[in-house]
């Protein structure tokens, strides 16, 4: 399959130290069509991405990872993408594994490929494990859908999925909403084992200490529960 119609979407918030390296690593794998969505960063994320000569879209305010990802998906549709892969901006995902997300789409065995950190035996911070367990539980509770890694941001979509999935949650609930919408639209989903690298930068980015990350994820979990409940009541 030609990579000319493969777009890589990178939602980014305050990722000035990492975004350039992520873009370089993606390009090293042969992917030239890269969309960075700068989600209202307070640092020079946008400037760093523009210096790499890729497409950069700016949110004037921080709306959340879900909104940033959907902006990237909408742009990819306008640019007639055949396939899209979303990847995090902090360097935790390995661009060498993009092909693993694309293969099930290329061979037409899946419409959506879900990267999973939990299909391989690897060292994952307790706070990340906790956040995923909360997300898995809420995804099953609200949507009756399951995955070993409902909160992974490393995912692939074919054109059919790109046209049918349109998330409405602005923040991390959108990861679960994607799985729900894929199920509603009868899109085929396949989990793909991925590796992750939690560098000092990525681990320290939001506060640093592990116990503080656990507390933050519990808070995020309750916020996620509240927003998903409100959404289910009002729709």
Characterise this structure.
- This protein has helices at 16-28, 45-50, 65-78, 98-106, 126-143, 159-164, 173-184, 200-204, 210-234, and strands spanning 6-12, 34-39, 55-59, 83-86, 112-116, 155-158, 189-193.
- It has 235 residues and is of the alpha/beta class.
- The protein has one domain: Spore Coat Polysaccharide Biosynthesis Protein SpsA, Chain A, CATH 3.90.550.10.
- It has a seven-stranded mixed β-sheet, with helices on both faces.
- Helix 1 links the parallel strand 1 and strand 2 (34-39).
- It starts with 5 loop residues before the first strand and ends with a helix.
User: Tell me about the biggest sheet?
Assistant: 7 strands, mixed
Tell me the quaternary state.
Answer: single chain
Helix content: 40-55%
Strand order of the largest sheet: 3-2-1-4-6-5-7
What is the gyration radius calculated from CA atoms? Answer: 17 Å
Unreliable stretches (pLDDT < 50, length at least 5) are 207-222
Strand content: 15-25%
* End-to-end Cα distance: 40 Å
Count of the domains: 1
CATH topology description = Spore Coat Polysaccharide Biosynthesis Protein SpsA, Chain A
Helix/strand order, N-terminal first: EHEHEHEHEHEHHEHH
Shape call: globular
Give the name of the CATH superfamily.
Answer: Spore Coat Polysaccharide Biosynthesis Protein SpsA, Chain A
Q: How many beta-strand segments?
A: 7
By DSSP (H or I, 4+ residues per run), the number of helices equals 9
CATH architecture: Alpha-Beta Complex
Overall SS class: alpha/beta
**CATH class placement:** Alpha Beta
Average per-residue pLDDT, rounded, comes to: 84
């Amino acid at each position: 399959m030609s990579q000319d119609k493969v777009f890589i979407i990178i939602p980014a918030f305050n990722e000035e130290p990492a975004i350039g390296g992520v873009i370089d690593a993606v390009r090293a794998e042969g992917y030239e069509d890269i969309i960075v969505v700068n989600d209202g960063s307070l640092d020079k994320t946008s400037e760093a991405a523009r210096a790499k000569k890729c497409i950069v879209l700016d949110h004037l305010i921080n709306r959340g990872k879900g909104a940033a990802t959907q902006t990237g998906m909408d742009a990819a549709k306008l640019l007639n993408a055949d396939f899209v892969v979303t990847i995090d901006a902090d360097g935790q995902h390995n661009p060498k594994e993009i092909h693993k997300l694309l293969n099930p789409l290329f061979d037409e065995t899946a419409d959506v490929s879900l990267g999973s950190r939990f299909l391989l035996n690897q060292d994952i911070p307790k706070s990340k494990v906790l956040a995923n367990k909360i997300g898995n539980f809420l995804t099953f509770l609200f949507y009756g859908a399951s995955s070993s890694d409902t909160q992974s941001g490393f995912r692939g979509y074919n054109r059919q999925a790109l046209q049918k999935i349109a998330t409405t949650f602005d923040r991390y609930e959108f990861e679960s909403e994607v799985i729900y919408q894929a199920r509603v639209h009868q899109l085929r989903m396949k989990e793909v084992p991925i590796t992750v690298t939690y560098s000092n930068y990525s681990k320290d980015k939001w506060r640093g200490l592990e116990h503080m990350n656990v507390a933050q994820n519990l808070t995020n979990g309750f916020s996620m529960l509240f927003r998903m409940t409100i959404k289910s009541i009002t729709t």
